[in-house]
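User: Design a sequence. Structure:
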């Protein structure tokens, strides 16, 4: 046999296979590492997008706290069945919160406004003039902003003084449907009243002359990627049928704590002179006059558990309340998440006007 016809020896084949195995092992390690890094970055990016959406919804609701709620001539009504931060039979307070008591000392926020519900009806309004004449809105598509006949509404008289601003119109009862407002109409052409949509057709009168949304950190239905000792920031609207909370709407996942502070002007000079985490002792009028800004701090983490990561600090201040990441409730994994404090500073637009 000539040299040209000779094959590989067994030793050469084994050496070639060993080199190939080493190369494939290196490629596999690099590929798996890249996949893991991509997965981590994807989770972080997804968390960031979810945060933007959920926080914007919360910001919008706080901005509109107090929108369309009555200030004077308050009729008898029932607030939430839970009794938490109830204003039954008194002027509703546009925004307030329970200080602490939730997960890791989280607060419990309540916003009251006509447009804080989840139905399209509560986003609509129109004017009412003498003779039961109502203004229609011209939109594309047609009637998108107009109330339907069986939508449940309230009627307010704008008023002109502190004692009659935003007065409820109560001819016999205060809850009406849009096609039954003749008794609520003003008696003279110079007077105009405002109709606010509250909820859709039901066949029963409204429970309260506004909508109410409760915000809390819930420990139910928490995604598996979230750290132990975290929950989900949810929005729960109070039902007009029985005063219980409707199905919770998740706003933000993996929340460890929520703290709320109010910047107040207590002396009426237009400048903030006091920060408080509890305004439950204030009346509706005091809240309208004094609350200038609402600050909401939320501790969440980006992405998911990362064994190769260690957070730089073991305790994080959330609105002045420390959260210990080494606490037993985190099951020893608290430092293996990328924690971030989100802070909303919101100026309410409809509390006092």
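Assistant: Done.
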């Amino acid at each position: 046999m000539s040299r040209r016809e000779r094959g590989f020896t067994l030793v050469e084949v084994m050496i070639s296979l060993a080199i190939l195995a080493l190369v494939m092992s290196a490629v596999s390690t690099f590929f798996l590492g890249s996949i893991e890094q991509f997965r981590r970055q994807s989770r972080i990016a997804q968390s960031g997008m979810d945060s933007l959406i959920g926080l914007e919804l919360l910001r919008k609701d706080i901005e509109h706290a107090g929108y369309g709620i009555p200030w004077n001539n308050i009729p008898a009504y029932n607030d939430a069945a839970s009794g938490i931060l109830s204003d039954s039979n008194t002027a509703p307070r546009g925004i307030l919160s329970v200080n602490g008591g939730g997960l890791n000392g989280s607060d419990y926020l309540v916003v009251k406004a006509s447009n804080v519900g989840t139905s399209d009806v509560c986003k609509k309004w129109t004017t009412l003039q003498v003779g039961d004449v109502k203004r229609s809105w011209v939109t594309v598509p047609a009637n998108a902003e107009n109330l339907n006949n069986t939508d449940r509404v309230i009627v307010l008289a704008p008023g002109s003084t502190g004692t009659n601003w935003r007065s409820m119109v109560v001819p016999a009862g205060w809850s009406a449907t849009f096609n039954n407002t003749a008794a609520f109409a003003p008696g003279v052409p110079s007077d105009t009243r405002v109709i606010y949509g509250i909820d859709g057709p039901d066949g029963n009168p409204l429970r309260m002359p506004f909508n109410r949304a409760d915000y809390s950190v819930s420990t139910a239905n928490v995604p598996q990627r979230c750290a132990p000792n975290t929950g989900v920031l949810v929005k729960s609207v109070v039902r007009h049928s029985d005063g219980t909370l409707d199905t919770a709407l998740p706003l933000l996942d993996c929340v460890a704590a929520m703290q709320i502070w109010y910047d107040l002007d207590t002396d009426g000079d237009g400048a903030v002179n006091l920060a408080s985490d509890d305004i439950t002792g204030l009346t509706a009028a005091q809240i309208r006059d004094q609350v200038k800004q609402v600050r909401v701090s939320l501790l969440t983490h980006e992405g998911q558990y990362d064994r190769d990561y260690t957070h730089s600090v073991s305790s994080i201040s959330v609105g002045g309340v420390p959260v210990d990441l080494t606490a037993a409730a985190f099951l020893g994994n608290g430092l293996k998440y990328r924690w971030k404090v989100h802070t909303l500073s919101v100026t309410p637009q409809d509390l006092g006007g």
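The mean pLDDT is 91. The first strand starts at residue 95 and ends at 98.
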